[in-house]
Design brief:
The chain has a single domain, classed as HPr-like (Histidine-containing Protein, Chain: A, 2-Layer Sandwich), CATH 3.30.1340. It is of the alpha+beta class. It has a three-stranded antiparallel sheet. The chain is globular, with a radius of gyration of 11 Å.
């Protein structure tokens, strides 16, 4: 994931109180950290696992799913 989609992901993630984690190849990072996301070096069509924990976790997951389904607004 390059910088623009990562920034879009973080912008959405930071709107929620819940903790958001992204996992790739056994490495887990804070989904609210652009630097953390960039360190995952996930290529296009790579597989990421997103986890949300907290009071608004379901809403956070839905917002992030929408972002991803809409190709991070880059289509």
């Amino acid at each position: 994931m390059h910088a623009r989609p990562a920034a879009n992901f973080v912008k959405i993630a930071q709107q929620f109180k819940s903790d958001i984690y992204i996992e790739r190849n056994g490495q887990t990072i804070d989904g609210k950290s652009i630097l953390g996301i960039l360190t995952l070096a996930c290529p296009m069509d790579g597989l990421l696992t997103i986890k949300t924990e907290g009071s608004d976790a379901v809403a956070a997951m839905m917002a992030l799913e929408n972002l991803i389904e809409n190709k991070f607004g880059e289509d």
